[in-house]
Amino acid sequence: MPASTYRLQISAEFTLFDAARIVPYLHRLGADWLYLSPLLESESGSSHGYDVVDHSRVDAARGGPEGLAELSRAAHERGMGVVVDIVPNHVGVATPNANRWWWDVLAHGRRSPYADYFDIDWEFGGGRLRLPVLGDGPDELDVLRVDGDELVYYEHRFPIAEGTGGGTPREVHDRQHYELMSWRRADHDLNYRRFFAVNTLAAVRVEDPRVFDDTHREIGRWIAEGLVDGLRVDHPDGLRAPGDYLRRLAELAQGRPIWVEKIIEGDERMPPQWPIAGTTGYDALAGIDRVLVDPAGEHPLTQIVDEAAGSPRRWAELVPERKRAVARGILNSEIRRVARELGEVAGDVEDALVEIAAALPVYRSYLPFGREHLDEAVAAAQAAAPQLEADLAAVGAALADPGNRAALRFQQTSGMIMAKGVEDNAFYRYPRLTSLTEVGGDPSLFAIDAAAFHAAQRDRAARLPESMTTLTTHDTKRSEDTRARITALAEAPERWRRFLTEVGGLIGTGDRVLENLIWQAIVGAWPASRERLEAYALKAAREAGESTDWIDGDPAFEERLTRLVTVAVEEPLVHELLERLVDELTAAGYSNGLAAKLLQLLAPGTPDVYQGTERWDRSLVDPDNRRPVDFAAASELLDRLDGGWRPPVDESGAVKTLVVSRALRLRRDRPELFTAYHPVTARGAQAEHLIGFDRGGAIALATRLPLGLAAAGGWGDTVVDLGERSLRDELTGREAQGAARVAELFADYPVALLVET
Fold first, then answer.
1. Pairwise CA distance, residues 79 & 27, whole Å
2. Tell me: the pLDDT tens digits for 435-460?
3. I need a surface site. Which of 85, 87, 225, 491 has the fewest CB within 10 A?
4. How many helices and strands (H and E) does the chain possess?
């Protein structure tokens, strides 16, 4: 098992060979294992690799099999392991002839040997596979042309089945095993399962042993040849039978650890029989962020949003509302398919399904495990829609049957609705404190105290000691240091109100709720280029879907939005207001960022460091968080630190590299220091500003609520009892013992990493 992992985004711009070249730096940093994004051949130009088109080989653009062998060799020579992200749920079909399975299905229809590889409802399509690629016009099929044995629509090319040529392109089209239709029909009339609402990602039936074998043969080679030491499973909630899949994968992995990208809601538990090491760590992120939030900011920040919205905006009401909208909108094709499989079990099947999906408090159940969540959803749906009480009871009973086809499909579907309705929509409509609207988090839970934090860590140590912990991933809405600065707003809500009033009087869009979210992003990520901020603002506005959206956007509103970003960056008066606020929050952001990182790296679990976050990283949502990392500069900083330099807390981020390197090295080199978990508390007037714990010899101490601490005049006589052990701060070299004054421990940095000498 790894002591830690370091996540690298492998792409054509940063290949496996490039990764191999930085292995010496990562080893010096203290990282134990490398954790790689998907490697199988994906769509040409894909920056993320989740659109696999060929499972038989490592993507040549990412370095190919030679690159994987080189990286594996470089890692193993230094005692480091390799974890690779795999994608069992779907494949890329944006370019049909790049995916030979998809191309064969288009050419041969249900007679294709690969027809059952995909999750297609042939009957609903009248025996044809519906492809939503046409534009809006009534005569789009007239644009088709025949080019040899292919049917061509602009840049899209499709096979012509043998013996079906001749006549007009429209006539040829009508003889094919596929039907080209308007992209607008995808949300309601599609007959193949997608990844969420992405038409170019077609789901595969990995529950079929043939599909499993053909999609995992190359992965099995990595394991058999010792190239890869662990696996990370993308989106297991999309699978028909995740438990069965994971058991087969565990056999393939031959004892290597497996982590799953599973979002845990509240007190939810994963099925205990899954043969996994744990999750990818979003549940840890949520607790670390919230213990650094000032609970006193909840009411005033809530008021700001409510006033901007014109009425109270409550998370408990927003979530089912947005999930309903998704279930009736972009994911209605999936709901309709569940309804078709249910048949005539009730009067209004589709409405009942929508209401149950909207009320489900978790991403999905794993029947019979998790049945209580389904029962809770049915009861909540009956309270919300009493006119459907009988229909809901009948549909709920069918969905609770583990052997019912519709129940299996509903479990695959409910997670999509949660993700699209909450993560990709409601999060953008609830900007009370946007550091809390993060994957795996519940924004209605504003803050937790130290006692709740410690209880969660003890639970993790007992139940999920090998589960990953994380603060930033390729999927987070904002990176850890962006969130750290935003979190400081909870300590200065009236200052935030004043800023919004000042800039709102100079520039606005007409959507004050969205402006709150955008300004928080600008403040958190600052300094940032106009291009980066504009891309974020447009994506956020379209995801929110109130003033514009992805399908039928409002060009006038989007022009006002981009103007707001331009003014923030370039107009002197607004720029000055922004800079002044950022200056007031910068020190608190540094403090929160270092605190979060130290807590994550020392807490129970397997800490993962996302690429580049060993220095300040103020990224926003993807693709911003996949920008290239300057590893040469990072290596130079580490060299200086190892030479004895004690860096200041400044914009260079060197102090964060100090914290990360010293913590990672301890995790790797001195595991005996991480065998327990005991809270460490302070005494004195400012005791509440300390959060700390002892892992059995390695002690993390960090500052909470730094603005409040500064306003109180600092630590004063606050002390922390360290016992009679002789301790040394790995960050400063300072010795400590007994009742130590916190002001002295934190004389240089707002955190301390103490180790028994």
1. 9
2. 999 998 999 999 999 999 999 999 99
3. 225
4. 26, 27
Spatial distance between the Cα atoms of 486 and 303, rounded to a whole number of angstroms: 17
Tell me, what amino acid is at 721? D
Q: In terms of C-beta distances under 8 Å and separation of at least 24 residues, what long-range contacts does 176-179 make, across chains too?
A: 176/106, 176/128, 176/151, 177/105, 177/106, 177/107, 177/108, 177/109, 177/110, 177/127, 177/128, 177/129, 178/106, 178/109, 178/128, 178/129, 178/130, 178/131, 179/125, 179/126, 179/128, 179/129, 179/130, 179/131
pLDDT tens-digit profile of 284-311?
999 999 999 999 999 999 999 999 999 9
Amino acid type, 561: L
Q: Which amino acid is at 582?
A: V
- Interior/surface letters 503-526, b for 16+ CB within 10 angstroms, e for the rest: beeebebebbbbbbbbbbbbbbbb
Whether residue 361 is preceded by a cis peptide bond, meaning omega within 30 degrees of 0, is no
The model carries a pTM of 0.96
The token pair at 314 is: 């409550």
Q: Please calculate the CA angle 498-490-745 and round it to the nearest 5 degrees.
A: 125
Task: Please provide the distance, in angstroms rounded to a whole number, between the alpha carbons at the two ends of the chain.
Answer: 26
Do 96 and 102 meet the contact criterion of CB atoms below 8 Å apart? Answer: yes
- Amino acid, res. 312: P
pLDDT in tens, 539-562: 999 999 999 999 999 999 999 999
Buried b (16+ CB within 10 A) or exposed e, 614-625: bbbbbbbbeebb
**Percent of the chain's residues with pLDDT above 90:** 98
The total number of residues written for the chain in this structure? 757
Place of tokens 């409550």: 314
Among residues 723, 720, 659, the alpha carbon closest in space to that of 696 is found at 723
- The answer to whether the CB of 697 falls within 8 A of the CB of 673 is yes
* pLDDT surpassing 80 at residue 408: yes
Q: What is the pLDDT of residue 90?
A: 97
Task: Answer for the pair 604, 3: CB distance below 8 angstroms, yes or no.
Answer: no
Is the Cβ–Cβ distance between 80 and 30 less than 8 Å?
Answer: no
Question: Which residue in 263, 418, 270, 394 sits closest to 334, CA to CA?
Answer: 418
Half-sphere exposure in the Cβ direction for 443 (13 Å, CA): 26
Average pLDDT along the chain: 97
| Cα dihedral 180, 182, 183, 186 sign | negative
- Can you tell me the distance from the alpha carbon of 610 to that of 478, in angstroms, rounded to the nearest whole number? 13
- Give the per-residue pLDDT at 344: 81
- Residues 1-43 have pLDDT tens digits of 999 999 999 999 999 999 999 999 999 999 999 999 999 999 9
- Calpha distance 437→620 (Å, rounded): 13
